[in-house]
Amino acid sequence: MRMRRRMWTRTLRRALAAIPLHGVIVTLCVLWLTPTVGLFITSFRPRSAISDSGWWTVFLHPFEMTQFTLENYRQVLFENDIWISFLNSLKITVPSTILPILIAAFAAYAFAWMRFRGRTLLLMVVIGLIVVPLQITFIPLLRLFVNLGINGTFFGLWLAHTGYGLPLLVYMLRNFIGGLPRELFESAAIDGASHWTMFVRLVLPLSVPVIASLAIFQFLWVWNDLIVALIFVGGAAQTSPITLTIANLIGSHGEDWQLLTSAAFVSMVVPLIVFFSLQRYFVRGILAGSLKG
Amino acid sequence: MKVRGYVPWLYLAPALFILGVFLVYPTVETFIVSLYKNYYRPDRVFVGLANYLDAFDDRGMLIAFRNNFVWLVVMTSATVGLGLLLAVLLDRVRYEALAKSVIFMPMAISFTAASIIWRFVYAYRPPSRPQIGLLNGLLMGLKDWANTPAVQAALTLGAGIFGVLAALFWGLALARVVAEAVRRWRDERHLEGLARVGLAGFLLLGLFYAIGIAARPPTGSLWEFLWFLLAVGGAGGLLIVGAQDRRWGPLFLGSLLLALGARFVLDQADFQPQAWLTLRPWVNNLALIVAGIWVWTGFCMVVLSAAYKGIPSEMLEAARIDGANEWQVFWHVTVPFMKSTLAAITTTIIIFVLKTFDIVYVMTNGAFDTEVLANYMIRTLYSFPPRYGKASAVAIVLMLLIVPFIVINLRRFRAQEAVR
């Protein structure tokens, strides 16, 4: 009996000692979550309610569904053209993800498994380009785009994002493809496989996990990009991605929180789906991408 | 493997073409443009470094430099520090995965969306209207609370009691530390502890002296400043010495926090709503940096957590069995073991901080002295008439600042790959 009581007190003491630990963690999590929750709740409140009371007042009657509305989303999607921008973002992002990864995979394969003169030097140059910050390319490229007439087009943005993404993608893919076992390629060569066959039948299937991580990184990078769109789309509203449209909304509707919050949430939907459904690849992709200049 | 001469180039051609057009050519041209006045007009003039001098003579650029430096110091230390704290703490709880998702989530969304979220947190209305921004709303709530007579009385009492308790526990902790140091000096001629206590005592004297000085109107002399530094250092050191004591340290910290918390709430009694993003120069810059911290802490946490889980648990256990407290284990085992990861993450954050653009562009566009280099470059580019030479010079300066950190990062990455 006494033994049991002592064990019980020990458990209690341990639980008490853990309170600060849980306190710190829960506090931080609440701090991290609250701003987003505020945005989410506000995006469903009518305009008058938003300006008459703080979003936290909805918790006074949490089950009162009449205080919520979808009107903001209707307005922002169809009257402020966020829907068009959302589609634009997709049209920009998907090719801007596939194109650089495909091109980088070809180059990475050549760098890893083909011998040619100047290979090391060329690879060093490509890797060296990782250090180039985007800002440095803006002025000449902007003029080039204007001269070629591709400023403000999807095509121009695809090319720009491909260029900015390539050095890191080549580097990462070369590291991976170069690390595949040599015997694999030797036995394939003995069987008479050409480089093309090896690339398509061997390298690409084996690289699927790493390509998935890199694709997620590149996808989110382009989806979330503002500065490249700002430079190369500029005022062309019909090709503007969602980030740029939102940034412009601030200029014209800086205090219309019903529009800003719902627009921001629309832009967050795709990344959040990617994040919650592909979390493992997502983290790996972010880690790889953190080297980007 | 043998290939015909041209085959590799077929594989490389698309990549080389795009890299040439989109990175190599613009970098070279930007460098040339930065040395000219009106480069894109027929009347261009070679001006050497005049664009650079012009940029550095500009108030906007100097403010951008200052702010980038503040971003660098505050954001890097906060994200790495918080990330480390979370990595260590989350390892001990069962809901680790859930908490990590919460902290990491901001990494997924765009800086533009993050800026809207934080702009809303800082939203300001005149005092006559209800506040809708979280920060002003929270502080107004505290104000109402602090102005309730009963609460005010309770808080004043609480602040007093916990203040006295904190002082008491601190004294007890110090006494224990001193006694331990004296004992070890007597028994083992162990000097380190005694030296530390002696230094702390000396610093305490400095503190009293500094309080005396602070009570008089400041003269602005160098000695005054040095005493001030000494006092701050001494007070900090003594607080840490007290907090490290195993028996009284936690009680001291706990009551100190409660006393400070009560004091803080009391101080809100005459709070007025603030337009946070216009309060130059520190509040608004810090407000922007907080948004950056919110985004980037998750990244640091994930990387550092992986490194923390790589520490052999026997090492931590051995240190604990040898009688080290958690604080000592952290500083003498955990941190040294994670040194290379900490260095890597610091350089990565520095690179991102130097390139900070979206948050500033969306939240203030550099107004109220919140300019940073990347945004300044874009503004120079879009000024009318566009000053290409100056904008190029700023871009080159930005690159020169970033390059060393990226090189360090790539080197480390290559070394890791070689080990694998």
Notes on the structure:
The complex is a heterodimer of chains A (293) and B (420). Chain A has 293 residues and is mainly alpha-helical. Chain A has 2 domains: 2-72, no CATH class; 76-289, MetI-like fold (Orthogonal Bundle), CATH 1.10.3720. Helices cover 75% and strands 0% of the residues of chain A. Chain A has 15 helices and no strands. Chain A has helices at residues 2-17, 19-42, 47-52, 71-79, 82-113, 119-128, 138-148, 154-178, 182-190, 195-206, 208-224, 227-232, 242-253, 257-277, 279-289. By secondary structure, chain B is mainly α. Chain B has a domain at 131-273. Helices cover 76% and strands 1% of the residues of chain B. Chain B has 17 helices and 2 strands. Chain B has helices at residues 7-33, 50-56, 59-90, 96-104, 111-121, 134-146, 149-188, 191-215, 222-244, 249-267, 282-309, 313-321, 326-337, 339-354, 358-363, 373-381, 388-419; strands spanning 36-37, 45-46. Chain B has a two-stranded antiparallel ribbon with strand order 1-2. In chain B, a hairpin with a 7-residue loop joins strand 1 (36-37) and strand 2. The two termini of chain B are 24 Å apart. The chains are: A mainly alpha (293), B mainly alpha (420). At the A-B interface, helix 2, helix 3, helix 5, helix 6 and helix 7 of A face helix 1, helix 3, helix 4, helix 5 and helix 11 of B.
Text of the CATH class of the largest domain in chain A: Mainly Alpha
Main pleated-sheet profile of chain B:
2 strands, antiparallel
Number of domains of chain A: 2
State mean pLDDT of chain B (0 to 100 scale).
Answer: 85
- Count of extended strands of chain B: 2
Number of strands of chain A: 0
CATH architectural name of the largest domain in chain A: Orthogonal Bundle
What's the tally of helices of chain B? 17
Radius of gyration of chain B: 28 Å
Structural category of chain A is mainly alpha
Helices and strands of chain B, in N-to-C order?
A: HEEHHHHHHHHHHHHHHHH
Cα-atom radius of gyration of chain A = 26 Å
Mean pLDDT of chain A: 87
Please report the number of helical segments of chain A: 15
Q: Do you know the CATH topology of the largest domain in chain A? A: MetI-like fold
Cα separation of the termini of chain B: 24 Å
Assign a percent range to the helix content of chain A: over 70%
Counting copies of identical and different chains, the oligomeric state is: heterodimer
Major sheet attributes of chain A: none
